[in-house]
Amino acid sequence: MTHPPRHLADLSLAERRETVAGLGQKPFRADQLSRHFFARYTDRAEEMTDLPAALRSELAGELLPSLLSADKDLSCDNGATRKWLWRLFDGAMVETVLMKYPDRVTMCVSSQAGCGMGCPFCATGQAGLTRNLSTAEIVSQVVAGEKLLAGEGGRVSNIVFMGMGEPLANYKNVVAAVRRLSAPVPEGLGISQRSLTVSTVGLVPAIRKLTAEGLTARLALSLHAPDDELRDELVPVNQRWKVAEALDAAWEYAEATGRRVSIEYALIRDINDQPWRADLLGSLLAGRLAHVNLIPLNPTPGSKWTASRPGVTDEFVERIAAHGVAVTVRDTRGQEIDGACGQLAATVTGRSVGPASRRGARKNLPIA
Ligand code: SAH
Ligand code: SF4
Predict the structure, then answer these.
(1) Distance (Å) from CA 22 to ligand 2 centroid
(2) Any residues with Cβ below 6 Å from ligand 1, and which?
(3) Coil, strand or helix: which one is 346?
(4) Apex CA 342: angle with CA 315 and CA 227, to 5°?
(5) Residue 117 Cβ < 6 Å to ligand 2
């Protein structure tokens, strides 16, 4: 089998009803199954007591195959940060992170196993692309978080596509996941689209296509350098779509949705953290619907790069703010459990090993 097994989260509610009818059952059984998954967060046939016993395992077997099995389930920050490493049906590994804050819960989900974009500072990028995740494999990561929180009376409030993979390189399944996550129960999970953030390395045609979808999700653009010379190196797709083109596409998205684009910028010591680059970045963004999210680099094993010094980070923030541009430094939570992009999966699959020291004194500011 090359595709993950079919799951109801891959299908619209109408398609689920057709599938159930095709199995010789009443279409409303599809709604019941959907409620179990999207409102009670279960795919276990024995828990579906509103379905005739004889039907439960047949329907659950057809439409609710178990897609994720937890290879590791880690927590840190006194339980406020949780990370799963999932094994998929074919052995591929992906990770999901859940972060609890006093006023919200943010989940960071993966859209691909691995990534083909090759950014040299990113652990996921080093391993290359294994495959795209199905819509249901993406949605199931969030359902796992909801299931955990349901026991504590909580809910997922924000979802960021900032785990493994380039979401816009898995366009169809990611857009379907955005729709499924935001559709009301029983069609989907009922999380406001406005609380979803799709992060991209800057695939310009895909950003344009996304603009035309009429979504209200936020867009994050991983810029990391304001000039083409450095961005060509840090973000290899820049050799295809330049800084100016990526920003133009981002502004079109912002205008169409009325939502500020989040400009992601990993601060790498002595590489992209010079005052002149802060000034250039500020001038590119001044007057735009933008917010800068500075990420202290999480060093990948074997890399010569490390995070910027705190004083340098502070000056970078000030110079951007001086252009009237909103800027925050991202929370660096979950570092003891390799909470950043791709780290844990890379360790387990043996492609790279060993935590570099990542415990500098850093600011603790919200992600979004
Ligand atoms: N592929 C998408 C989304 C996943 S990466 C993208 O690149 O936008 C999510 C974010 O983590 C991106 O902004 C990415 O640049 C950043 N990131 C990757 N590796 C990092 C590292 N080692 N330290 C800090 N940020 C990193
Ligand atoms: Fe892929 Fe994003 Fe990592 Fe670049 S930063 S390699 S696009 S996951």
Answers:
(1) 41
(2) 115, 121-122, 162, 166, 199-201, 222, 264, 266, 295, 297-298, 300, 340-341
(3) helix
(4) 40
(5) yes
The candidate with the shortest Cα–Cα distance to 335, out of 307, 304, 294, is: 307
Which amino acids are annotated catalytic? 95, 341
The two three-digit tokens of residue 357, written as one number:
């020291």
In short, whether 262's Cβ falls inside 6 Å of ligand 2 is no
Taking residue 3's Cβ as centre, other Cβ atoms within 10 Å add up to: 11
**Residue range 136-182, pLDDT digits in tens:** 999 999 999 999 999 899 999 999 999 999 999 999 999 999 999 99
Confidence of residue 330 (pLDDT cuts 50, 70, 90): confident
Candidate from 126, 261, 264, 313 with most ligand 1 atoms within 8 A of CB, to mutate: 264
Provide the 3-class DSSP secondary structure of residue 132: strand
Cβ distance 179 to 222 under 8 Å?
Answer: no
- Confidence label for 310 from pLDDT (cuts 50, 70 and 90): very high
What's the distance, Cα to Cα, between the start and end of the chain in Å? 39
Q: Please list the residues that pair with 314 across neighbouring strands.
A: none
Q: Are 124 and 341 in contact (CB under 8 A)?
A: yes
Identify the CA nearest to 68 among candidates 126, 5, 121, 2: 5
Under 8 Å between Cβ of 166 and 111: yes
Mean pLDDT value across residues 98-124: 94
Q: How far is the CA of 167 from the centre of ligand 2 (A)?
A: 10
122: Cβ below 6 Å to ligand 2? yes
% helix, strand, coil for the chain, step of 5? 40, 20, 40
Side-chain-facing half-sphere of 3: CA atoms under 13 Å: 8
pTM: 0.93
Could you tell me the two tokens for 296? 């202290």
